[in-house]
C-alpha cells in the first residue's frame, strides 16, 4: 500500500522543462523529451520529480506567467503528453509533483484581459490589485514598492476610454499581475487547479512565492532604509520587507492543505523565501505546509562555521513542527553551487563534497537538474539573455539564464543530444562534452556516479535513520552522526585531516595515502 508519508525523506529532482530534453527539435525542451529520459532519473535513484511550469503561457518569465493553469502550453506538449509522462514515471516508481503559481497570473490570463476592459471598482478589477495613483493626476504609483526583477512594482494602464488610468501591482514582471487574495473567486480557482491536477494523478506541488500571496492592509510604503537595501541588490527578505510574509498568507496555506487532505499522500513544498527561523517555522504546521525550502544553504559560503550554522538553524526551524528540513543547493533562480563555491576544479570538488553533505542530512533533498553532472552556471552573451530581470533592471542585473542552460546528454558538440538542433533557446557552451550524461555514465570517478552511489546508500544503508548530533571536528571541518550510526565528515579547509574511527562508506574524493580526508572533501563513515 502507498505510504502517505513517502515525502519525508525523499530525494526530489527539479526539472526545468525548457532545458531538460527536447523531443520535437525546436530547441526548447518539452514533456515528451522528459518522458524519453526517465531512465536517467530511475538510474539515478530519485524518488520524485518537480516540474517547473509547463502551463499555457506567453513565457515572459518562461512559464511563471500562467495564462491557463489547467492546460499545457503547446511548446511543451499537451495534456495527453502530460498523462503519458505521469504514467511512465509512476511505472518507474517516480512520483510527479508540479509547480503551482498562486501569487500572480499572466497579463494574458482571461481574467486580466477582462479586468482591463472593465471599469475601476468592478468585480473584474477586484481579482487583481488595482489602485488609483498618487499625485494630482494619479501619475505616481500607489506606493514605493519595487518589483523583484527591478523597477517599480506598479504599472499604469490605459482605461477603455483611452485616458491614463489605474495602476496594478506586479511584484515580478509587468506581465505577472498579482492576484487579489481577498477575493473569494481567487481561492475557488486555486482549488479547481489543485483538484484538476490531483485528479490527473500528480503527487504534490511546489508552491511558487509561497510567502507572497497575502499583502499588508493598506499597502503601506516600504521604510526608506529597507528600500535602499533592496535597491542595493541585497534582497534582505527580512520581516521589514513588508511585500512578503504578510499574516494572511497562513490562511491560504491552511486552505491548500485542506484540499490536499482529500488526496492521501499528496504533498506540498513552499518556496518560502523567509530566512528568519521564527518566521519560517510558522509555515510548517500539520494544517499548513508540510515542507518549505530552507534557502539558507543556498546563501551559505563554503566554510565549515557557516555550514554548521546553516544546519543548526534549519534543524531549529523544524524542531517541534512535525516537518523535516528541505535541503537545497541549487535551483533555476540561483547561480549553480559549483560556481558559487569557486567554479573550475575547486568548485567542482566542493560541489561533490556539498552533495554528500546535503544527502547525509535528515529530511528531504531537492536536486536541480544538472547537479548530478556537476554543471556550472554559464553566463550567456548579452544578446542571448532572456530573463526578464535583464530588461526590467535596465541591464544592471543579468538575471538567471546562467543556471538554465540546456542539459548535455551525449558527448560531441552542442546541443549534446539535448535537441536535434544546435539552435537551442539558450546557447550551450563548447567544452561540455565530458560533462554529458553518457560521458560520465559508468566512469567511477564521475560526479554522476558519485550521486548514484550516494542515493543508493541513502536508500539502502541503515545508518541514515533518525536525527543528527554534531561530532567534535578540527577547525574548518564539520561532522555529525545520524542516529542510525552514519557519520558525515566534511573538510571545508585546505589541509588533509585525520578521520574519526569508522569505516569509509563513501568519499567525495579518494583519501590520501595516509588514510586522511583531503581538503574540500566529504566522507561518510559507518
Ligand atoms: O521566485 C520567487 C522569488 O522570490 C525569488 O526566487 C527571487 O526573488 C527572484 O528570483 C528574483 O531574483 C519564483 C520562481 O522560482 C521564479 O523563477 C519566478 O520568476 C518567480 O517566482 C515569479 O513567479
UniProtKB/TrEMBL annotation:
InterPro entries: GH (IPR017853), GH13_cat_dom (IPR006047), O16G_dom_2 (IPR045857)
Glycosyl hydrolase family 13 catalytic domain segment(s): 14-404
One annotated GO molecular function: alpha-amylase activity
Biased composition (Basic and acidic residues): 389-403
Coiled coil: none
GO biological process, alphabetically ordered: oligosaccharide catabolic process
Keywords: Glycoprotein
Region (Disordered) location: 378-403
SUPFAM superfamilies given in the database record: (Trans)glycosidases
Family assignment from sequence similarity: Belongs to the glycosyl hydrolase 13 family.
Name used for this protein in its record: Alpha-glucosidase AglA
Organism: Actinocatenispora sera
